[in-house]
Inverse folding.
């Protein structure tokens, strides 16, 4: 099919090439030969009168025009998928859809189990792929079609796509219950003097707590260890005088398993607003509406004993 002399089949090839920046990887993703994809690139170059991708050493680099086309092409394909390819009706009990959800291990520990419980009670045949929270710009996961939903704090939400607040979360400190720091009140001085273990996302090299509040209070923490996992933080303080600052619901869960003491923070910080976000072109996707409602119900069930 052609539109203004452009073979629309080439849009899929262009999207893949701009995403993978490799003919070999792009061909594997599209299940076609490298020579066929190389031919598609040549046709795209002729149409746009631009190289789109240029070989520099061993890498292919996107040209300025290619960069300008990248988001537009992906949005066009998302629009086609959401308006034409997705079936208008969604039946949870007969669907074969696999939903991809970008979320942290904290979310997988405190929220997702309640969502899967609801899905099981509904006898839904939907399946789920939980994606590691490693991207520096989470919204790109939506725009590149890699994720159906993001579940992340409001501070990291994109203003380009709709979102809902699922719940609010407080923060607390956890320490080994037999440690000296577990005795008495946790003051700001004791907090600053303690050894800290913290979660630091690989993509950003910064931890949430350091950028959100510790610097505001002029506290320079003595970082003993960093990890990629929120759920592992409580275990890392066992047997030491170290401290971890974590989500209150996660602390409550882990204190049932590990010999921990939960202490209030020695200063006030606003609660975190945990949100769900989806692509702007998928507002009317009945499957995503069902999943978003399931997550909202799961958020309510989290605090029901």
């Amino acid at each position: 099919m052609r539109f203004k002399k452009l073979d629309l089949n080439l849009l899929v090839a262009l999207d893949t090439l701009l995403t993978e920046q490799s003919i070999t990887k792009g061909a594997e993703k599209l299940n076609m030969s490298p020579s066929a994809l190389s031919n598609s690139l040549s046709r795209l170059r002729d149409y746009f009168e631009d190289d789109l991708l240029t070989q520099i050493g061993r890498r292919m680099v996107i040209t300025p025009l290619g960069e300008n086309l990248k988001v537009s092409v992906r949005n066009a394909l998302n629009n086609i998928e959401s308006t034409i390819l997705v079936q208008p009706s969604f039946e949870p009990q007969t669907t074969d859809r696999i939903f991809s959800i970008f979320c942290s291990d904290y979310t997988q520990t405190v929220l997702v189990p309640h969502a899967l419980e609801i899905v099981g009670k509904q006898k839904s045949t939907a399946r789920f792929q939980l994606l590691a929270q490693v991207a520096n710009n989470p919204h790109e996961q939506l725009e590149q079609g890699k994720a159906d939903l993001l579940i992340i704090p409001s501070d990291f939400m994109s203003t380009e796509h709709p979102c809902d607040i699922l719940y609010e979360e407080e923060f607390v400190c956890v320490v080994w219950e037999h440690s000296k720091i577990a005795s008495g009140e946790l003051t700001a001085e004791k907090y600053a003097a303690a050894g800290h273990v913290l979660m630091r996302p690989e993509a950003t090299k910064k931890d949430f707590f350091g950028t959100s509040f510790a610097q505001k209070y002029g506290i320079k923490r003595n970082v003993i260890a960093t990890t990629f996992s929120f759920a592992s933080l409580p275990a890392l303080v066992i047997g030491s005088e170290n401290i971890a600052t974590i989500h209150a619901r996660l602390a409550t869960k882990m204190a049932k398993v590990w010999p921990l003491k939960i202490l209030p923070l020695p200063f006030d910080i606003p609660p975190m607003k945990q949100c769900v976000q989806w692509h702007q072109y998928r507002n009317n996707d009945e499957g995503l509406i069902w999943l978003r409602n399931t997550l909202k119900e799961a958020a309510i069930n989290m605090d029901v004993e």
